[in-house]
Structures are given as C-alpha cells and as structure tokens.
Specification:
The complex is a heterodimer of chains A (196) and B (314).
Chain A (H helix, E strand, L loop, with lengths): L9 H9 L3 H23 L2 H17 L10 H19 L16 H10 L7 H6 L6 H8 L2 H12 L4 H8 L3 H21 L1
Chain B lengths: L4 E2 L2 E2 L3 H10 L6 H12 L1 H19 L8 H10 L8 H15 L9 H8 L5 H13 L1 H18 L10 H26 L6 H26 L6 H27 L3 H15 L1 H26 L12
Antiparallel strand pairs in B: 1-2
Helix pairs in contact in B: 1-2, 3-5, 4-7, 6-8, 7-8, 10-13, 11-12
Classes of the chains: A mainly alpha (196), B mainly alpha (314).
The structure holds zinc ion (ZN) (2 copies).
One zinc ion binds next to helix 3 of chain B.
C-alpha cells in the first residue's frame, strides 16, 4: 500500500502511526531525519555518534507514540527527546572538540590551522576527521565553542526556526531563560566572528 | 521622584511600563503581575503609565499624517505602517513626550538585547515600533542592528546535514528489534512476576489472602458462643481429624505408586510429620503459601499482557 502522505499533517501522521501503519512511521522519519540529525551532529560533532543518538531518539519517539500529546507540535516533541538524549550524553562524556578548529591557545590563524591538522580527539578515525571538516567553517567553529545550552537555543532558533515558546518547551526552561541564553549566545558568536 | 523606591516597593522603569502596556494585549508573566501590584498603589507610576499610554496612542495615530521630510519617511518605512497622512508636529510630539518621560535624550541608544530582539522579530509590536523609530534616527544603532541581522542571516543560511544513506532503513530495522525484545521481556515478566502491578491487583490479592483468616475468625467467634466446647477439646478433635486425613492420603499414595523406594520414603516422611506437630504445622503453612501463590499467579495471568508493543507491517 503506497499512500501519499506528503500532504498529511504531522499530528495526523502520528495518529496513523499509533494505529500501526509502518508507512506513517516512514514518513515521519523522512520529515525529521535531517533536522534531528543536524541538531545532534552540531551538538556532538561526530557523525557516527550523531547517527546513533538520532536513531535512539527516533526509537524512543516511536515507542512512545501513543503518549504523544497533540496539544503540542510533533516537532517540539521529537526535538525534546533528541535534545534530552544529546545533553545526557554530553554530560556523561565530555567530548573534546578541539580538533575542529585548532587548539584554543593557538593565537594566529596559522597556528590554528597547524594545530587543527595535528590535534584530534582520541579515538577519532581519519574518516571521521574528514567528515568533521563539514563543521570546520568559521561560523560552525564558533557555534561549536558555545556552551551546550547556548548552542541548543541558537540551533533551535536560527537553524530549525522554532519559536521562543517552543524552545522553552523543548528545553524545559522558562521563556525568560530562553531569551537570556539566545542573547548571550548571539553576543558570543558575534564576538568570536569579529575576532576571527 | 528623588528615590527610585516608594513604600510599595521599586518604582517601575520604562521597560516595565512598556512591558505592562504590551502585556495588556497578551498574557501576564510574573514580572507583569508584580508591576501591576505596584501600580495599584503608586500614584507616581500611575501618572507615568498614563503618559506612556498617550505615547502609544500617538503612535497609533501616526499613520494618519503624511511624512513631511526624510525623518518621518524613514520612520514610517521602518515601522511598516500603511502610511496615509502625517504632520510634522504630530510626528514629533511623541518623541518629545518620550524625552520628557525618560528624562534622557529621545535617542538614548538601544541595548544589545533589544537590538537582537528587534533583528530576530521578537519584540512586541509597540516596543518594536519605538525601537525602529530610534534606529531610523541613529546611525550607531542602525549599524549595530545591521550587524545582528547579518549574524542571524548567516546562521539561517547554514546547511542542514543528512545522515548517511540508509539511515531510515536502519532505524526501522532497529526499531523492530527493540519492539520484539520488549515483547519477549514483557512475556517473561508476565510469567514470573508474582506481585500484583496495579491497585486492582493488590485489592484482589488482599481479598484472597484474607479469606482463610476471615473464615478462621468466623469459626473462632462461633465457637466462643458455644460453652460446651473448650478450646483444648476442639484442638484435639481437629488434630485427630487432620491425622486421619493425612494417614488416608499416605495410604492411597502408597497404593497408587506401589512399593517403590521413593514411595516408602514418602510414606515414612508422612508418618514422621504426623508424629511431630511442629513440623506438621510448618508443612501446613507451606502448603497454604503454595496455594495462595498459585491463586495469585493465576490472577496475574488472567489479565491481558500489557507489554505487547505494536509493530504492524503494511
Ligand atoms: Zn511607583
Ligand atoms: Zn542609538
């Protein structure tokens, strides 16, 4: 059975999925695999790890599909699950991110380029290193240097386009805190980009 | 106002007052609620709120007057109002009013926070109008605003990344595995779990357990009303009955299993149990526990399995 789900709303897809239609799950996956993976990838900065976490986020979402509250957007829900998983992971295991943009004490651009070629996270394969060059641009490097909470708000707001209220719900923090995080995160980004 | 405090707490600053007027249109946050409490008791702040309300009123009327020169044009183009007619005196009046209200230059620079919010489209309408009016007259803030807009545009232009090919297939396959594991675990848990898992289960289990106790209590209560029967006599009578029953059980068991060594040992065990009252009581207790457990297990297995995870292929 190949129904065309492309015009079906998220909430309706969830209902169909909860009834057990595998094609509805597939449509949700195709809608959210990129945004969910992108968010996690920019958080953990490692493709393999990001895929594992993204997979886990989808499985948790699917297993809990009949607890979904249609009062909220499905995107807020799946991003909440993905964000919780990612933050938990980052707290448990501090991933060194120094490899992407050079040693923090490298003051000149030359020194940065040199150290960024040499210093790699422990256990990072050459392939992963090449993959990580996707995140090597100036702005990506600046995002990578933000603390976790600031990075999440910036990504959710300016890359995923969530509203402030949605971000508050996804991160389980008050609206005022969202505004403060966003303000500080953007100020830090601006500073880093001006320095570069 | 010499002091920034009154007997009702801190006076409201311009931000708080603007927030209050903005909030009249939307929902009130904690800040707004405390501002309202202060306002109810403070005539000084009430006066300032009225003045601000007038400013907002002027802003609302602004669209009716035509722009006389470059300034008003820029304001209006920034503000995005459907411009009809304006008069220079009207256009300027709220700027003067604002200067009077704030006690600082009308073009006091906007904070980074406010500029960011403006660039991100996150200021409430009235505050956005005021901020845009300032930006239109201030090269400094205009440059800073452009900087924030550039940053936001850069961020929004960043690409999204796709996971490696076949990701969706891997997720679906893994999900099926997880669902099957969970179903297997669920059935195992169903089979071996003796304790009830719901309040309803506990009530039922409690009722079953208390039934023998209640029956015993009823018999005891009945017996206490019959004076001819002494407790000692009753115990002796019951003891003999039990011994007869156990003897009969032992004999039939013997007949059934013939004279194998095992049967003989079982018979000896039964004889020993009858000869020793303490062991017999312990055995009876064990038997009762076994009975109750089996009733329990039976009950647990009657309900529908709750663990079954849905995974339908279509
Ligand atoms: Zn006051
Ligand atoms: Zn200014």
């Amino acid at each position: 059975m190949s129904l065309n789900y492309q015009s079906v709303e998220d909430a309706e897809l969830v209902t169909l999925a909860a009834e057990g239609r595998e094609s509805a799950y597939r449509e949700l996956l195709s809608r959210y695999e990129r945004p969910v993976f992108s968010l996690i990838y920019r958080m953990v900065r490692n493709r393999t790890l990001a895929e594992d976490l993204a997979q886990e986020a989808f499985i948790r979402t699917f297993n809990a599909i009949d607890t979904y509250n249609p009062q909220y957007k499905f995107s807020s829900w799946i991003f909440k699950i993905a964000n919780n998983l990612t933050i938990d992971h980052l707290r448990k295991r501090r991933v060194p991110t120094v490899s992407m943009h050079g040693a923090p004490d490298a003051v000149t651009a030359e020194a940065q380029a040199r150290t960024s070629l040499v210093v790699r996270s422990p256990g990072e394969s050459p392939e992963e290193y090449v993959q990580n060059r996707e995140l090597a641009g100036q702005i990506e490097a600046a995002i990578g240097e933000l603390r976790d909470e600031y990075r999440v708000v910036v990504l959710l707001r300016h890359i995923e386009g969530h509203t402030y209220d949605e971000i508050a719900r996804i991160m389980d923090i008050p609206l005022g805190t969202v505004k403060t995080y966003l303000h500080r995160a953007r100020a830090e980004l601006k500073l880093r980009l001006a320095e570069a | 106002m010499n002091s920034d405090r009154s007997s009702y707490g801190r006076h409201l600053d311009d931000d708080a007052i603007q927030g209050l007027l903005d909030a009249a249109e939307g929902r009130a946050d904690a800040e707004t609620r405390s501002a309202r409490r202060h306002l109810a008791d403070c005539p000084a702040c009430q006066g300032r709120v009225d003045a601000w309300r007038e400013v907002f009123g002027e802003l609302g009327r602004l669209r009716r007057f035509s722009p006389p020169g470059r300034f008003a044009e820029r304001v209006l183009s920034e503000i995005d109002l459907p411009g009809e007619a304006s008069s220079s005196s009207r256009a300027w009046s709220w700027v003067r009013l604002r200067r009077w209200l704030t006690g600082r230059a009308a073009d006091a620079h906007l904070s980074g926070r406010r500029l960011q919010a403006l660039a991100d489209g996150a200021l409430p309408r009235k505050r956005a109008i005021l901020a845009k009016a300032h930006v239109a007259t201030c090269g400094d803030c205009e440059t800073r605003l452009a900087g924030w807009r550039r940053l936001i545009a850069t961020l929004e232009a960043l690409p999204s990344f796709a996971p490696a090919a076949g990701f969706a297939e891997r997720v679906m396959a893994r999900w099926r595995e997880v669902a099957e594991e969970a179903t297997g675990r669920g059935q195992a848990a169903q089979r071996w779990r003796l304790l009830p898992r719901s309040p309803r289960g506990w009530v039922l289990a409690g009722t079953l357990t208390s039934m023998p106790v209640a029956a015993f209590a009823a018999v005891a209560a009945f017996l206490s009303t019959v004076p001819q029967l002494t407790t000692g006599g009753l115990v002796t009578y019951l003891w003999w009955q039990a011994r007869d029953a156990l003897s009969a059980f032992g004999s039939s068991l013997l007949a059934a299993v013939m004279q194998s060594g095992a049967a003989f040992r079982a018979y000896s065990l039964a004889e020993y149990l009858i000869a020793s009252p303490t062991t017999a009581v312990a055995a009876a207790a064990g038997f009762t526990t076994l009975m109750l457990s089996s009733i329990w297990v039976l009950h647990r297995n009657i309900g529908f399995p709750r663990f079954a995870l849905r995974h339908v292929y279509n």
